[in-house]
Amino acid sequence: MKERIATEAILLLEDGKIYRGKSLGRIGTSSGELCFNTGMTGYQEIFTDPSYYGQIVITTVPHVGNYGVVRKEVESEQVQIKGLVCKEFSEFFSRNSAEGSLQEYFERANIIGICEIDTRELVRHIRDKGAMNAIISSDEADIKILQEKLAETPSMDGLELASKVSTNEVYDLAAPNKQYKVAILDLGVKKNILNNFTQRGCECKVFPFDTSFEEMEKWGPDGYFISNGPGDPAATTQAVENVTKMLEQEKPLFGICMGHQILAQANGISTYKMHNGHRGLNHPVKNLLTGKCEVTSQNHGFAVDAEQVKNNQKVEITHVNLNDGTIEGIRVKDKPAFSVQYHPESSPGPHDSAYLFDEFIQLIKQRKGEA
């Protein structure tokens, strides 16, 4: 691969702070909410995670691109981020199994980014000031023009984005040794979540984000799963209505990330936008039911209201974040329904929380009289 000549690039933050570096990916301009991920590996999984739709990602690991890309490490069919900010961007890769470079991958996906800036200082700034919108440009140097374009970027607060990443058509995923049927409400589901179900003998039927409960129920599922997804969960009102009806059926229900927030709303608990979200592979969570600590992978900028959970007679707290005390898991006391804010299916890891899929299967077995 011939080394490219990187052009100058600008990163302009909503509060007026400016960073200048070198371009990566396509030449152009892109804006979105700026956030950072503390994971040391798994950049391709991050870039293809639908929950990142509408966001510019800062990677805190200093080297990105050094092990290339491979098809099997995607979490969706396309790159979902709006841009990348990193310290060192490598066009060359050393992994023998890599199918290409990250630069080529970004060029095909029309992704714009900036590198060779002080990401450590930038992350500290975002950590202190809070999440904010930003714009990256490698083809426009006029700050006034960039400020005008940035002003047009919508706030993530109140923004519905599940419709941008959900499947347009219902599709099926077969399972070896099929035993159960799980209906998936796709708000931006990750591939490895589906893999965890099929590996456990669950045939999955994946439904678009706005599918009615009645349409999903026609399939006769043994249980329901509410997926992760981007945007403000409070704006995803159709999903809340669906989950409310699912709870009335008393079939097992499991939610991850946005699915967790939707389950909370279906029980009268509101959500809020965090000062800074949780994004990385190293977040400590305590399981209050077992007393054990789990190292978890997370990606969310909204959370459920802790006081409302504590005062809700229908819901029990099952997991808490050991860094900031936020709610990481709940279950409905008189229903076979539970959810977690983090990602038990995380790829490449950690895998401390994979047991949650088994607990969901156990609920299905109990309802069917098999356990």
From TrEMBL:
GO biological process, one term: 'de novo' UMP biosynthetic process
Keywords of the record: Amino-acid biosynthesis, Arginine biosynthesis, ATP-binding, Glutamine amidotransferase, Ligase, Nucleotide-binding, Pyrimidine biosynthesis
Entry's EC annotation: 6.3.5.5
Pfam family name, one: GATase
Domain Carbamoyl-phosphate synthase small subunit N-terminal: 7-137
CDD domains in the cross-refs: GATase1_CPSase
Residues at which L-glutamine binds: 51, 229, 231, 258, 261, 299, 301-302
Active site: residue positions: 257 (nucleophile), 343, 345
GO MF terms held by the record: ATP binding; carbamoyl-phosphate synthase (glutamine-hydrolyzing) activity; glutaminase activity
Record's keyword annotation contains DNA repair: no
Span list, region CPSase: 1-180
Reaction equations catalysed: L-glutamine + H2O = L-glutamate + NH4(+); hydrogencarbonate + L-glutamine + 2 ATP + H2O = carbamoyl phosphate + L-glutamate + 2 ADP + phosphate + 2 H(+)
Family to which this protein belongs: Belongs to the CarA family.
HAMAP family in UniProt: CPSase_S_chain
Biological function: Small subunit of the glutamine-dependent carbamoyl phosphate synthetase (CPSase). CPSase catalyzes the formation of carbamoyl phosphate from the ammonia moiety of glutamine, carbonate, and phosphate donated by ATP, constituting the first step of 2 biosynthetic pathways, one leading to arginine and/or urea and the other to pyrimidine nucleotides. The small subunit (glutamine amidotransferase) binds and cleaves glutamine to supply the large subunit with the substrate ammonia.
Subunit record text: Composed of two chains; the small (or glutamine) chain promotes the hydrolysis of glutamine to ammonia, which is used by the large (or ammonia) chain to synthesize carbamoyl phosphate. Tetramer of heterodimers (alpha,beta)4.
NCBIfam families in the cross-refs: CPSaseIIsmall (TIGR01368), PRK12838.1 (NF009475)
The name this protein goes by in its record: Carbamoyl phosphate synthase small chain
Source organism (scientific name): Adhaeribacter aerolatus
